[in-house]
Amino acid sequence: MIAKPDYDHLYEIAESQAGYFTAGQAREAGFSWERLSSNVKSGLFIRVARGVYRLTRFPSSPHEDLFVAWLKTGHSAVISHESALAVYELSDVLPSEIHVIVPRTSSRRRKGIRQHTNQLTPNEITQRAGLPLTTVVRTIADVSTTGLAEEQILQAIHEAIQRGLISEKELQSYAEQRGGRVKQIVQSAFGGGN
């Protein structure tokens, strides 16, 4: 552990995470629990959830709940499914849980967080405002396989294409690889249903 708190190092960590950091990351930067608490009392840090903080100089994110869930589930977690749709503003569905994809070795359940252990390739992950989330095509495929209402998925597809987030060709190619309900829904979005 570092002898003195390294504010610059903590800032570097938090900067890449929209100003958020965990108590564990603060410890790595040399902050004891007492020092962390004193920085909260002095107003330099804001405690947003148990074990999760934000540097005061960073504004609160409209997706603060997603940052908290991501930091609590670990750096290899990725925001996914309906939660990713919400970040992309492709659905008016308000998920009752925050959806994250975590490594298969992650087994700890957390209240309000729905952990999926699906495999992800690097090209299925992107970042938005410091938050790792599944790409639009991967998100559409995931919600197609987990039972989101078809009309909600079709709405997301048409909105994503209209806003230029994905192309019809890209989505159809991905759906062809995935097959099953994903392929069926994508085909019906473009008039090629069964």
List keywords for this structure.
194 residues; alpha+beta; 2 domains
Describe the structure.
The protein has 194 residues and is of the alpha+beta class. The protein folds into two domains: 7-55, no CATH class; 64-189, no CATH class. The chain has helices spanning 7-15, 23-28, 33-42, 64-73, 81-88, 136-145, 150-162, 168-178, 180-189, and strands at 20-22, 45-49, 52-55, 78-79, 98-101, 113-116, 125-128, 131-134. It has a three-stranded antiparallel beta sheet, sandwiched between helices. The protein has a three-stranded mixed beta sheet with strand order 4-5-6. Strands 7-8 form a two-stranded antiparallel ribbon. The mean pLDDT is 91.
Task: Describe the structure in brief.
The protein is α+β, with helices and mostly antiparallel strands and 194 residues long.
